[in-house]
Specification:
Keywords: Kinase, Transferase. With about 425 residues, the chain is of the alpha/beta class. It is built from twelve helices and 19 strands. The chain has helices spanning about 35-40, 50-55, 90-100, 110-115, 165-175, 215-225, 260-275, 340-355, 360-375, 380-390, 400-405, 410-425, and strands at about 10-15, 20, 45-50, 65-70, 85, 100-105, 125-130, 135-140, 150-155, 160-165, 180-185, 195-200, 200-210, 235, 245-250, 295-300, 310, 325-330, 340. The strands form five sheets. Strands 5-4-3-6-1-7-10-9 form an eight-stranded mixed beta sheet, with helices on both faces. Helix 7 runs parallel beside helix 9.
């Protein structure tokens, strides 16, 4: 489930068809992209590994913090910043102090110990290598019934399979008063862990937030007022994995793969204008400040970007059946909703279009928004600068969000470069 401090724990491994994960200190295959997948899955986490695994790597991996588990009291990692634990409980305690999600990275004994610890491991992310290989190190046998598959990503040369502990689905079924089926992990955001399920004839979305996060209470209050294109509230409650919010699942999907940012901008602007026209009475006030504003206090979504919108149709150009371009059919993730200046949402939306690759789309968005809302905004450039300053420390990590909506090309370096260029043009 989690550590005592509420951190998610995931076993991450590459496994051959016959269960082999290593041959002594060596990996008995060379599959392009497999190690890059491990990096993508573990960046920003605490890596928990045994001494032999650490020795095979030879150094702490960048972008991650390493905790080495060994019973040898005299052993030293030989590098600064590597933590050493003598048993699993001590390793988990160190991870809790570090405050990052935990990736268990091997070897076989460490995987086995973590999986055997009651309620510790929440998920297994297994890169399946379609080879029969020789090796003396094996991943523990997986109980398929106790660890249902929630995601399967077919790649060239390997498949990434994500399994969740069945207890989480059982807890969700108890909250909903009946069994759930067809669990599918949804991507596109990192604030919550999101799962689509089916219960009877209902399609639902369950989102788990970090322990202590007020997002459920905030969004439940927001959904009660039925904002435009929002899902309906179904249930919420406390779980060992943090608070969970269950809503209806809306139609639509991620931004159409063939649509340019300039095609997305008008629909985004018209949708935001409709959101801003909704009553914001009773909501908490935003603390965001940049001047001057238009003076309009509106319902602010708080995280208005293309990935929090649900889109209709492929949008691949002429003949795609959508004469007016891509269409927004839903708006999700209302956890940041508040009342505040319209410019706040506008700045985040414009920045998203810039990160997607088009400053021109940001201009189109602004014109379309002012036309649809019937109002002129204040100093938009000032708010663009405000948003860019807040995005700068985090934008590289948003690559996972963009990959989740079908844009794996927007890696961290690309996002940083586009934001910096936009900010420099703002002055």
């Amino acid at each position: 489930m989690t550590t005592p401090g509420g951190l998610a724990v995931t076993c991450v491994a590459a496994v051959a068809r016959n269960g082999v994960i290593g041959d002594g200190p060596d990996i008995p295959w060379k599959v392009p992209g497999e190690q890059a997948e491990f990096k993508r899955r573990t960046l920003g986490t605490t890596l928990l590994m045994g001494r032999a695994t650490y020795a095979s790597i030879g150094r702490p991996l960048p972008g991650r913090t390493t905790v080495v588990l060994t019973r040898d009291a005299s052993w030293s990692p030989g590098h600064d910043g590597v933590h050493v634990a003598r048993d699993l409980d001590a390793a988990v305690a160190i991870a809790d102090e570090l405050g990052r999600p935990v990736s268990v990275a091997g070897g076989a004994q460490v995987y086995a110990a973590a999986l055997a610890a009651p309620g510790l491991v929440d998920a297994q992310v297994l890169t399946e290598i379609p080879l029969e290989v020789e090796g003396d190190v094996r991943y523990p046998a997986v109980d398929a019934a106790g660890w249902p598959v929630v995601d399967r990503d077919e790649r060239e040369g390997f498949t990434v399979v994500v399994r969740w502990r069945g207890a989480r689905l059982e807890a969700l079924a108890a909250l909903l008063g009946g069994p759930v089926a067809g669990p599918v992990l949804l991507h596109g955001g990192t604030h919550a862990t999101t799962l689509a399920v089916r219960q009877g004839d209902r399609d639902l979305v369950a989102r788990w937030f970090p322990p202590g996060d007020p997002a459920v209470e905030r969004e439940r209050a927001m959904l009660a007022s039925a904002p435009p294109l929002a899902p309906g509230h179904v249930a919420d409650g406390a779980t060992p994995w943090g608070p969970v919010l269950v809503t209806t699942r809306l139609a639509g999907g991620p931004p159409p793969s063939g649509a340019a940012p300039e095609d997305l901008a008008p629909a985004m602007a018209e949708t935001l204008a409709a959101v801003h026209a909704h009553d914001a009475a009773g909501l908490r006030a935003s603390t965001a400040t940049a001047t001057p504003t238009s003076g309009r206090t509106v319902l602010v979504h708080g995280d208005f970007w293309s990935g929090n919108l649900l889109w209709d149709g492929p949008g691949d150009g002429p003949g795609d059946g959508l004469e007016d371009g891509p269409r927004v059919v839903g708006v999700v993730d209302w956890t940041g909703a508040c009342r505040g200046p319209a410019e706040l949402d506008v700045a985040w939306a414009r920045q998203d279009l810039v990160l997607l690759g088009s400053v021109e789309a940001a201009r189109i968005f602004l014109e379309a928004y002012e036309r649809a809302s019937g109002s002129r905004l204040g100093d938009v450039a000032a708010w663009d600068r405000w948003a860019a300053e807040r995005a700068a420390p985090h934008v590289a990590g948003w690559a996972a969000n963009y990959a989740g909506i079908g844009r794996p090309d927007l890696v961290g370096g690309v996002l940083v470069e586009r934001l910096e260029r936009f900010a420099a043009a703002l002055g």
